[in-house]
Design goal:
2 domains; Cat eye syndrome critical region protein 5; five-stranded parallel sheet; alpha/beta; 15 strands; Rossmann fold; binds magnesium ion
Length: 415
């Protein structure tokens, strides 16, 4: 395989080659972080045929503190121009805000092109060229702190975003147990978005085209009621009830057969590790609760009814494919065109259900092979994991050493 710039002597070589090619040197890293995501071979810049993907919580940080060898690992990869991407089921903030925090915490330069959080793939749904162009459609954004996720969605290019806070403030009768004092401070008038507030009947006239759960809902009861209402409505018109619901002559007994909005979830994790000593329910918990209510209302699978939904986040195929596309873009050297083949990606995670399962199950459309590496620095506490990785190691540094050894790279200096 092509020689890699590893070790002290090769670092000198790297600087020399970078000068001759008018590329940035390792010491320029802080000013130009993306440049160093490319390897240097004998005569031209070329990305290696492998890359790393790292989960964040439990791998690089824990309880808002950097894990011991996280800085060393990322610095090493950047210095040696080995591409990597950060792939997390976290979210609720813009990619820029989260990357700035991480960069400070880990003391390494990072940028948003190497960062995928749970809802990042939603951005493609606002893409003019995407299959499902929802750019100007009415999107109900669910979950997150205050209206941060609304602003994230608007940053992705969605031009018509409403939140449960907007709706409940306009129609307080929609959920009688709501705590309006929580929602009012960040609610926007629906009329500003071109929705008339009320018909003469007093019912809402809002039409929702898609429901996107961006992050863990803060008001499960309101959000459950509101999403259920829309799933049972006529074409997403709030306050209506489809007459097709329960029709045994229709597919899915008529449920979600009347133009109701698509339902998207960004993170299937049932639990996550918070500061409390036991795992806390995550967005997957809300999904299970909503599905339980939907099944209770419709009869559920026993009645031949399924909740139709679209899932993103690890371990889904869509999120891994999105991450792989990002890695490919990231490996491309602007002046040199496409990088060579990406043969291997090493997924390093602490959660067997999402990181390991996702990497094991992922089928790359271009044939890249993903290898799963489980670390002991996060939620995994030992024993036989529910989904078996290729290897179990202590931490992220050991994970990278494993990957480099598999690629035949001399790792003496990484011991
Ligand atoms: Mg994790």
């Amino acid at each position: 395989m092509a020689t890699f710039c590893l070790g002290r002597r090769s670092a000198t070589l790297t600087s020399s080659i970078c000068r001759s090619l008018n590329l940035l040197r390792p010491r320029d890293l802080k000013q130009h972080p993306r440049c160093l995501q490319t390897s240097v071979t004998n005569d031209q810049p070329k990305a290696p045929s492998f890359a790393f993907a790292f989960d964040i919580d439990g791998v690089l940080i824990r309880s808002s503190e950097a894990l011991p060898r996280a800085h060393r690992t990322l610095s090493y990869l950047q210095t040696h121009r080995i591409p990597f991407i950060l792939l997390t089921n976290g979210g609720g903030k813009s990619e820029q805000e989260r990357v700035q925090q991480l960069s400070r915490l880990l003391d390494v330069p990072l940028d948003t092109s190497m960062f995928v959080q749970s809802h990042t793939p939603f951005a493609e749904l606002a893409n003019d060229h995407g299959k499902e162009n929802l750019k100007d459609k009415c999107i109900l954004v669910v979950g997150g702190d205050g209206d941060k996720c609304r602003r994230v969605a608007e940053g992705y290019g969605f031009n018509n975003v409403v939140t449960p806070s907007d709706i409940i403030t306009a129609y307080p009768d929609l959920w009688p147990f709501v705590l309006l004092e929580y929602h009012r401070p960040f609610a926007r008038p629906l009329a500003q978005k071109g929705h008339s507030n009320q018909e003469s009947s007093g019912h809402p006239t809002l039409k929702v085209d898609a429901i996107m759960v961006f992050n863990d809902p803060r008001d499960w009861a309101l959000d459950t009621q509101l999403v259920l209402d829309l799933l049972l409505s006529i074409g997403g018109h709030l306050g209506t009830l489809s007459t097709k619901n329960g029709d045994p002559n229709l597919p899915n007994r008529g449920y979600q057969q009347d133009g109701q909005p698509e339902l998207y979830f960004s993170n299937p994790d049932l639990f996550w590790a918070a500061s409390y000593h036991l795992p806390r329910l995550g967005q997957g918990g809300f999904q299970a609760a909503l599905e339980g209510v939907f099944n209770a209302v419709t009869g559920g699978p026993k009645n031949g009814v399924q909740l139709h939904k679209k899932l993103f986040g690890k371990p889904t195929q869509g999120t891994f494919q999105f991450a792989e596309n990002r890695l490919r873009q990231h490996r491309t050297v602007p002046q040199e065109g496409e990088a060579g083949e990406l043969r291997s990606v090493y997924m390093v995670g602490d959660n067997p259900e999402s990181d390991i399962r996702g990497a094991n199950d992922y089928r790359s459309p271009t044939g890249s092979k993903w290898h799963s590496i489980l670390v002991r620095s996060g939620v995994y506490r030992g024993g036989k994991p529910a989904y078996e990785p290729k290897v179990i190691v202590q931490d992220v540094w050991d994970a990278v050493r494993y990957g480099l050894r598999k690629e035949g790279v001399d790792t003496d200096e990484t011991s």
